Amino acid sequence: MTELDLIRNFSIVAHIDHGKSTLADRLIQLTGTVAERDMKAQMLDSMDIERERGITIKANTVRINYPARDGKTYILNLIDTPGHVDFAYEVSRSMRAVEGSLLVVDASQGVEAQTLANVYQAIDANHEIVPVLNKIDLPAADPERVKENIEDVIGIDASDAIPISAKTGLGIPDVLEAIVTRLPAPKGDRDAPLKAMLVDSWYDAYLGVVVMIRVMDGVIRKGDQVKMMQTGATYRLDKLAVLTPAMKDIEELGPGEIGVFTASIKQVRDTRVGDTITHEKKPAAEALPGFKPAQPVVFCGLFPVDANDFEALRDAIEKLALNDASFSYEMETSAALGFGFRCGFLGLLHLEVIRDRLEREYDLDLITTAPSVVFKLHMRDGEVRDLHNPADMPDLTHVDHIEEPRIKATIMVPDEYLGDVLKLCQDRRGIQLDLTYAGSRAMVVYDLPLAEVVFDFYDRLKSVTKGYASFDYQISEYREDHLVKMSILVNDEPVDALAVMVHRDRAESRGRAMVEKLKELIPRHMFKIPIQAAIGSRVIARETLSAMRKDVTAKCYGGDATRKKKLLEKQKAGKKRMRQFGKVEIPQTAFIQALKMDN
Amino acid sequence: MIVQDDWRHGGFGLYVHWPFCAAKCPYCDFNSHVSASVDQTRWARALASEIARLAEELPGRHLDSIFFGGGTPSLMLPETVDHVLRAARAAWGFANHIEITLEANPTSVERARFRGFAEAGVNRVSMGIQALNDRDLRALGRTHDVAEARAAFEVARSVFQRVSFDLIYARQGQDRAAWQAELREALAMAADHLSLYQLTIEPGTVFGRRAQAGTLRGLPDEDLAADMYLDTQDICEKAGLPGYEISNHAAPGAESRHNLIYWRQGDWAAIGPGAHGRITLPGGRFATEAHLSPGAWLNAVETSGNGESLREAVPSCEQAAELLLMGLRLSEGISESRHARLSGASLSSDAVARLEALGMITRASDRLRVTEAGRPVLNAILRELVA
User: Fold this and answer.
1) B275 CA to chain A: closest CA distance, Å?
2) What CATH fold (topology level) applies to the domain B6-262?
3) Which of A11, A463, A566, B258 would staple B67 via disulfide (CB 3.0–4.6 Å)?
4) What's the ipTM?
5) pTM
């Protein structure tokens, strides 16, 4: 156990690409925590998908021994937090586990919206914040301007910001020293009953479920019988360790310390981020505040391309779910797509990550239906129902009104793109709440329906701002609006997987856009195919896909029979990427593409 | 069960592949090579030796047809053609009305050899005229011009009993009116057979690369291509050369007997680099393939006495598929009972009913035919019918 005043716990807050992981790597390297030869670029981002996307999905931690200039050796615990809005709750818990943050800002670019959200989380958690200006070695670096920008946008003193280059190592010793001198030591009572916060957990193939904790009060030891205060489950600790980042066994962890344990916990699902761990025998009187159960906000259907893969998909989803308590699933049957699952996610990135993992790690080909949000149906009889899937919309005569989730979105953008951003937000039924400037960058805050954002909002935002905008959101409330279910009929038959909830005023334009898009996406058949959008029985948009007119091989002689046969086999394989619906074959990609709005 | 004499439905032919060209055309994905000098005596001997090898396996047959394809077989010396034809006659003997076709480019060099080819026994030429305007000929990478082509055609008509020529349409920038006019001009030349191909952009060709790079402009869209196809059927029909196959038109009786062997799924022995054959042996029907590169083929024939790189059995179910793929190209269609015999089952009744209801196929007295409406979308029909 370590004396409290020799401990510093911190996180790093930064925008993607501003150098968070590189800085973490440098800190680890400079203190000799990891042998040089074991150093992989971006040490802490361990999942393939994290490395590829340059984002952190799971919290990671590392314990660093740092001999400071005052002659004492400190223990620095770095928690590398998820950097995406989808994981805002996880971020808030990580923030509560540490006392300070390094705010890393690119010295040529300034503060981005994503940074802002995490900084506010840090401020909420009463962190001491040390601004760090990275990439100071680049010719475009303008530290004075960026300091001003930090003071303007975030409202903290940036005069002592530390200039560094995580790439070259410049300024890293100053960062380490600032962690010791400027961040507060943790507090806690060693003699009080045990209170440790569950910061994160994950599945390890050899150890089973590994639980990361921050001890607030009391002492936890190997062999202890502990209780999770939310779930009520009790476990006996098999192993207690710190991460260096390799796991190193330790006898006990006291107040202010961060470490991991294993306790024969079978599923990650049994652990809840934010839960309080205490001793079974001498429990804490009350749990730590702020616990929230995971709440999926975005839903979509996942179906196997090949119906025979349904069991494989079920297996894969069950395995993934063991390791991710935040994602929910239930079986779904679609007339168009057969058997699959309706899955709930924390956000769009979470959805993409899970889908990518299913496809990659389990080698599945999946059809993803359009993401939708949870609508609240207020029934005439007073009942309030959650609607996860537009296809399940009950008869309107029983519905009194419908509410949808709204978000508060913060967008930062160079002013030359502001007009396009405002137009995009208006188009998506946004209500402007605020518009301020920091230098030549505008910050707009919009109240938007989540339903309009979950789909391609972020893509559109990136494209209208050439990638210069940054975006962040928080769910604000549920609000009533004029929402209707729009069905799509292909060849006069409704395709359930294409049904969407839309605002009544926008139904016509959305319907038009969808049928036009479907007309491009569905290949011509030997007969003409009407494609319609309808609300109830009223058709609001219609296109006709004309019949195929020409598809014939010009030359076919003796030497071509083999080739032709192979071509036909290839085409047949291509047909497998299609879904037969009535007499019409719809390509699997159409289920998502049809909803994309190009302008 | 092996259907031993099924090939008799189509007859027996010999295909001879001459792989050399003076230049490679930008749309061509055939096995052709540009080579400065070819030792034609060696090639003649090698081709004759292949004939002898196959004759031992296929005794007691008579050739209904021989076809020299390529490449550019009109670059063969008449002596080479003569040597090959003598070998073929000695090996199998000729049926009474044997058709002996040679593909020819309409240039002056080749024109000079026509009489020699005729003396060797060639009685039909198929000329690659491709277009009747000079600008488009250049765009297609052809080395001849229209005047040269017409001159060669006139010589061919005086020398050979039967003359056919090829045109490529739906070219870059071509509209319906321009093609209709060109087609009428072609019909006025009084050939008894025309092969009219829509330009197809094949991967691996110069055109394929340009199309991929987005620099191949002005190609007709699906609707225009379909209209041009229908115009072609209509104009040729009225001129007395109805389409008897997707891209082939002939006066009644002037159909290419050789190509009918392919489409009717007869037997053909195939020799020369990259040539594909289908032959029925006591053990069943086999697909043969010769070494693709001219050097490798010549070497294999000379050292091991066999130019084949592959021989594999074609199971009956695949023969049934080939019967559909090839046979439905013909206006005469296929025999349903023959198909059933090969596949061991009848066609999917769902698919047949659907296609009949759409007016894509008709069925009458054992024959399944693709209708005029169905022909332009034959590939889609085949995707439904071929199991």
Assistant:
1) 7
2) TIM Barrel (3.20.20)
3) B258
4) 0.91
5) 0.69
